[in-house]
Each structure stands twice: as C-alpha cells, then as structure tokens.
Amino acid sequence: MSPGPVSQALERHSPRRRGLPAGGRSATALGNGLLAGYLSVLVLLPVSALLASAASGGSAAFWQSVSGPEAVAALKLTLVASAIVVVVNALFGTLIAWVLVRDEFPGKRVVNALIDLPFALPTVVAGVVLLALYGKGGPAGIDITFTRAAVGLALLFVTLPFVVRSVQPVLIELDRSMEEAAGSLGAGSWTVFRRIVLPNLTPAILSGAALSFARALGEFGSVVLISGNLPFKTEVGSVYIFNQVENDNVAAAASVSVVLLACALVVLGAMTWLSRRGSAHGG
Amino acid sequence: MAIEVHNVTKRFGSFTALDDVSVTVKDGALMALLGPSGSGKSTLLRIIAGLETPDAGNVSIAGQDLTAAPARTRGVGFVFQHYAPFKHMTVYDNVAFGLTVRRASKNEVNERVGELLSLVRLDGLAKRYPSQLSGGQLQRMALARALAPQPKVLLLDEPFGALDVQVRGELREWLRRLHEEIHVTTIFVTHDQEEAMDVAGQIVVMNGGRIEQTGTPRELYEQPVNEFVMSFIGPVNRLGDALLRPHDIQILPGGDFASGAVEALVRRVVHLGFEVRVELTLPDGRDIWAQVTRETTAELELEEGQILSARLPTPRLFA
User: Fold this and answer.
1) What is the pLDDT of residues B192-213, one digit of tens each?
2) Using CB atoms and an 8 Å cut-off, which of residues 171-190 of chain A contact chain B?
C-alpha cells in the first residue's frame, strides 16, 4: 500500500513495464487469479464480513456503538497516542537511520540487528519486557503502569523499526556527491540537510510513519499488560473491541473496528499520495 | 585567480594517494590533470576544492591560504563526475541553488539563472527535472550550477567520462570556447590523453601520487622526461630499453638501405581509416609497428608477407 522500497522495486520490475513475451499472458492470468483469490480469502472477505456485522443493526445502532462515551474515549486515546508515536518515530527513526548509515562505532552491527527486535518479539512478550522494567518494583525504579505514558511507551516500542527500516536503504543509496555539491555552492551543513537530504528522505519517512501509525492503531498485545486497560483512562481501541467481544457485543466491536480500519486507510492513502507527490521526479 | 598547491600529501589508510605534490596554475589558465586511475588526480582536485583535507602541505587560491577553509567558503565551482544533480529540484532551482543560499534577491537570481541557462544552451528546459535530461544536458546544467555564484576557480572531475563519444567531442569544443569567453581559472581531471591535449593549454601528468611532468601538449609529446610520460601521452614501440613513436618509423621500398634502414617483414596491415598500422618483424625477430599514411600504403603496395626496409628514428632512452 505504501510506496516503500519494496513496492518501488516491484513497480520497477513489473511485467507491464518490461513487456512480456507472448507466452507469458496465460501465466499472468493465472497469477492474477491466484492473487485475487488469495487476497479475497485473507483480506477482502473478512473485511466485508466486518462491514456487514457493523451494519447489521442499521446506522442508528452503528452510530450508538461508536459514539458511546467509553468507545469515544478509547478511540480518542488510540488516535492521539498513535499520532504522538508517529511524530516521535519520524524524528527518532530518521535520526537512528542516519547514525546507523553515516556513523561508524563499535557494536554498530549489533545495534542494527537490535532494531528488528520489536518485529521479532511477540507483542505480549514486549509487554512483559516493558512491565519488568517499568512496572512496580522494576529495576528502573520508575512505575508507569496503568498510565497513558505506558500506552505511548508500548506503542513506541513496537513501531520503532518502521521508519528506521524505510529510511535506511534510501540513505544508503543517497548520492553523497549531491551533499558535496551543495557544500561547495556555499551551503552550511544545516542547509544541506534541509534542502538536499531531507527532501530525498521524505517519501521514505512518510511511508514508514504511515505504517507505524497503522500498526499503533491496532496494537493490542504490548499495551494490554502495561496499561491496565482502565476505561476512560488507559483503555485503547483494540482493548475496547476485545472487551466488547468478550461481553457478546459483537456488533459494537465491529462498529469500532470499522472506525479504526477507516482511520488506517485514510492515513495510508494520504501518506501514499504525499510521498508520490514528493518523489514524482525523484527517479 | 591563480591556484597554488604546495607539498601536498594525502594518505587513505596505508595507500598514499598524493606524495608531496606541488602545482601552480596561472590566473585564467585551462589546465588538465592527466593520469591513469589511482594516480591521485581526482584527490588533488578534491583537495583544492576543500572536499578532502590534505595530511600535509597547503593550498592557496588568489594568494590566500585556504588549506583549513571549509569547501563552502572557498569560492570554488566544482563539477562532479556524475554531475551530482539535485534530483528533487528543477533545472532552474539547481542552477539557482548557489545564489539562494547566499540570499540573493529574487530578481537577481532570476536574471543570473536566465543568463547561465542561455550560456549553457539550456534555455527552455528550466522547468525540467534532472531525470528528464540527457547526459550532455545534465553536464551543462552542472556547469551552470557551478558557475552561478561566480567562483574564483572552476574544477571539473572527469567532465566527459560519462558521455558517449560523439557528445564528448562536442562538449570538449564547447568547454574550450566557454573558457575563452569567461576566463575563469579552470582545472579538469581526465585519464584520456587526447582529451587533455585537445582542451588544455597546460597538462600535468600524474602517476602513483606524484607529478611526472608539467607542460604544454606539444612539450609533453616532443620532450617527455621519462618513459611513463612518453608511453602515456602517445603510442610507443619498445625495443629493449628504447622507445620509439610508431609514426617516426619510416617505411621504404625493399632493398633501400639508405641511412641505416633495416630489412623488415610485413606481418599485418590494418586499415584504421585515416591512418594505416603496419606490423613488422625485424631481422633479429623483434616485433614493432609503424603508423603510415594511406598514400604510403598505396605507393608501396603494402601487403602481408612483403619484405621492405624500415628506417628507425633515434630511439629515446630513459635511464
């Protein structure tokens, strides 16, 4: 969905641009059929079922489910926390990618491998890890359990790799002589960063940020342990949905899910559009 | 403005890229740094531009010692080997960059960019992006961008290296004319001796991080100081320690042994258009080749297996 390095590479190597040999047509048709079938079973059908379930009680019921005070509080917390996480990720993710690409220091490879840890770790385990460090009686002497800060921390932890991993390859590929040229034309290092480096990184930062936003919206495992899930305080959307299902209120769960899904789609769409616009002439 | 480089040394790890190099470029000169890859020519150019710091020695431009000055304050226009276009900016913004970082007024920028784009014959392409330009156009854009802030000196790193042969020839001619027009002290780096001789008034021949010889194209060709310069600057035949230029070998009809000519067997006759390359075997079994005109070839009816006479020039010996 987002124009990350992988999808850009796919686009470059798509058969449409290369021109297929004559015999490739039926293979393409088969491929397309498989893709459509696979995506239907995995994505389209479940999403349709979700929409049907949300709409089952009519628009009034839908509206009632999503505008209930607890639902609103949960959605608001989720959106605000995700937005904050995205901003922090865009900043620190870019910074980490920069240090990993441009600086040499002992243990760089270990640090680089460590970035993927939040991806590799089951999210509940991430929750346990955070609880062990920042919970009651933890070695840090800081207890943030059952606070909104805990929600933010958990989301930051699980979304750390997105921006780093989307910016890193772009930064590696970035032509250093562009920066040297800007320097020899009289630009100081800040100007070089702002006018040369940043515009070239923006599409990657945006796509990483969009992915981390989408991930933060739906995060459950890492948040559920450390946040305490206090309604109106630390209960996020996904946990609210879980509780509704537990209480046999499936339609309400589906309705709130639809709202989260819509938010994720809007953000992914917007970021895709922005980064397309930004990289229209980047090739 | 004149450029002076004094006793510059630069090492990368254990590799010595430049070993105690000194060069003086006169104000308004057009000079080539010529050498094979790894000879240190690009490193020297980058040190003059401030893109690399020398381990020893100093660099001054217009009499001012700039060894410690950062690149952005040196007033040097640099054209990179692959042009380093700002991909996300239009041609106009690329050329304007050096002016906008100096906070020039909008009118000033507009006027100067227009002037430069017509100088490099890119008017009408101001709104294009680098990805929409050809190699030759990119090169001219890079040149306009480097010239925009009115640099004291212009440095070009392998300016024609990435272009195809035909465009290369045109741009060579054009660069020489441009230099006549704007008279900015210019140094360009190349590994192509023909290109250096065609464009530059002065050539510095480099090898292994040292300067072998400095001179005009003619001086280098006619009075090379050592074997490296002689063989790098033009084709040579090697007879033991002696070097001869193929076009100095005179071919005479068989049996003509005037002024010390020797017998030679024609092994092969290669027609290279304007000139003909004749491969010969001497009586002692050594192989040499001579460069002759088409007229000579026709006159002597040169063909494989023929035996004729060859008069060798006084060979050059470099101890």
Assistant:
1) 999 999 999 999 999 999 999 9
2) 175, 177-178, 180-188
Instruction: List, in order of start, the domains of chain A with CATH numbers.
Output: 56-278 (1.10.3720.10)
Domains of chain B in start order, with CATH, are 3-231 (3.40.50.300), 244-313 (2.40.50.100)
φ, ψ dihedrals at B272, nearest 5°: -110, 40
Task: Output DSSP code: residue B132.
Answer: G
The terminus-to-terminus CA distance of chain B in angstroms comes to 38
Helix/strand/coil percent split, chain A, to 5:
80, 0, 20
The tens digit of pLDDT for each residue in B249-259 reads 888 887 777 77
- Are B189 and B36 in contact by the 8 Å Cβ rule? The answer is no
Nearest to A131 by CA among A139, A122, A238: A139
Residues 6 or more apart whose CB falls under 8 angstroms from that of B9 comprise B16, B18, B19, B20, B21, B54, B55, B56, B57
B112 touching A, CB under 8 A? no
CB-based contact (8 Å) between B53 and chain A? no
Instruction: State the Cα torsion A240-A246-A248-A249 to the nearest 10°.
Output: 0
Confidence of residue A3 (pLDDT cuts 50, 70, 90): very low
Contact criterion met (CB < 8 Å) for A180 and B80:
yes
Angle subtended by helix axes A148-173 and A123-134, to nearest 10: 120
Q: Most A CBs within 10 Å: which of B95, B97, B132, as the mutation test of the A interface?
A: B97
| Residues near B233 by beta carbon (within 8 Å), at least 6 away in sequence | B193, B197, B205, B220, B221, B224
For residue B97, give the nearest of A175, A185, A281 by CB distance: A185
Token representation of residue A241: 């949905």
As a whole number, mean pLDDT of residues B98-106 equals: 93
Q: Which two tokens stand for residue B215?
A: 């001179």
Q: Do B51 and A184 touch (CB under 8 A)?
A: yes
B77: chain A residues, CB-CB within 8 Å: 184
Element (H, E) at A228: none
Q: By the 8 A CB rule, do A2 and A213 touch?
A: no
Instruction: Please identify which residue in the block is written with the tokens 């309604």.
Output: A231
